[in-house]
Specification:
Blueprint (H helix, E strand, L loop, with lengths): L7 E8 L3 H18 L6 E10 L13 E3 L2 E3 L2 E9 L6 H6 L6 E9 L2 E7 L8 E10 L13 H6 E6 L54 E11 L5 H25 L1 H4 L4 H21 L11
Parallel strand pairs: 1-9
Antiparallel strand pairs: 1-10, 2-5, 3-4, 5-6, 6-7, 7-8, 8-10
Helix pairs in contact: 1-4, 1-6
Protein name: Phosphatidylinositol transfer protein N-terminal domain-containing protein
Organism: Littorina saxatilis
GO cellular component, one term: cytoplasm
């Protein structure tokens, strides 16, 4: 798909599990993390969570073909969600944004091992804002050079950053985000026998040494593209968005590893049941709970 102006960032996150294990672990962790981020009128509202294929209603289908790593994907799971924000964006945005504008639409086509997520603000920014995240999950060590099949021009603009889930430096995990129960250097999975991961002193933005030898191993390749057209704020917002995506990817994948004993051995049927239960819980929390989860890091 065409790239917007601005930066192209590719994040590579290695995890000590198989691609099949991550499929279950990712979905379980998304459901759990959603509960942690929802309450008091804010958080996640799930509108659609249904399978899609070429015969599905038009609303369920991607606007462009799902192609990655030399293959087209035509079926999977479609989700449509609304994020009710407010405390989760910087204060300078809250000051400028009119009431009701801080609702973000997320549409995702999970055709595992490929997934495309499109984030927009149709009620206010319309075509002037979007984030596109393309994820590919491969059984390698994060060393595939062009898994998203970018053009020569796109490759010249792309920046590659490795996220080491075992890196606890302040540049990787902020003090406000750190929690020992989500620290892969402290947590061991009793069911799989994996962990704790070694503290190998990896440099920020570089691959951890543990991922070069660990078995099993897989890598999430996440290509992020951002467009924000608002005179005087474009560079600042795009920079903030990229910083926030890195923060979310880091924290989420640390949790995926540390939560392993909760989902290890589950089937996809188990996951779909859990997702239905989570949807009901999210609706209740958003209606009557208190604001929870990650607050915005001010620029």
């Amino acid at each position: 798909m065409p790239l917007p102006p601005g930066r192209i960032l590719e994040y590579r996150i290695c995890l000590p599990m198989t691609v099949e294990e991550y499929h279950v672990g990712q979905l379980w962790s998304v459901a759990e993390a959603s509960k942690n981020e929802t309450g008091g009128g804010e958080g996640l509202e799930v509108l659609i969570n249904e399978p899609f294929n070429q015969d599905s209603p038009k609303e369920y289908l991607p606007r462009e073909k799902l192609i990655a790593n030399g293959k087209e994907y035509t079926e999977g799971q479609f989700t449509k969600k609304i994020y009710h924000l407010q405390s989760k964006v910087p204060g300078f945005i809250r000051a400028l944004a009119p009431k009701g504008s801080l609702e973000i639409l997320e549409e995702a086509w999970n055709a595992y091992p490929y997934c495309r997520t499109v984030i927009t603000n149709p009620g206010y920014m319309k075509e002037n804002f979007y984030i596109v995240i393309e994820s590919f999950h491969a059984p390698d060590r994060g060393d595939t050079e062009n898994i998203h099949q970018l053009t020569k021009e796109e490759l010249e603009k792309r920046e590659v950053h490795h996220i080491d889930i075992a890196n606890n430096s302040s540049n990787s995990v902020s003090r406000s985000d750190y929690d020992a129960k989500w620290d892969p250097t402290l947590v061991k999975s009793e069911k799989s026998g994996r962990g704790p991961l070694p503290k190998d002193g990896s440099h920020d933005g570089k691959q951890g040494q543990w991922s070069r030898t660990h078995e099993p191993i897989m890598c999430c390749y996440k290509l992020v593209r951002v467009l924000f057209k608002w005179w005087g704020l474009q560079n600042r917002i795009e920079k903030f968005t990229m910083k926030q995506e890195k923060r979310l990817f880091t924290n989420f994948h640390r949790q995926v590893f540390c939560w392993m004993d909760n989902y290890y051995g589950l089937t996809m049927e188990d996951i779909r049941r859990i997702e239905e239960e989570t949807k009901r819980e999210l609706d209740e929390q958003r209606a009557k709970g208190t604001v929870r989860g990650t607050k915005a890091a001010e620029d």
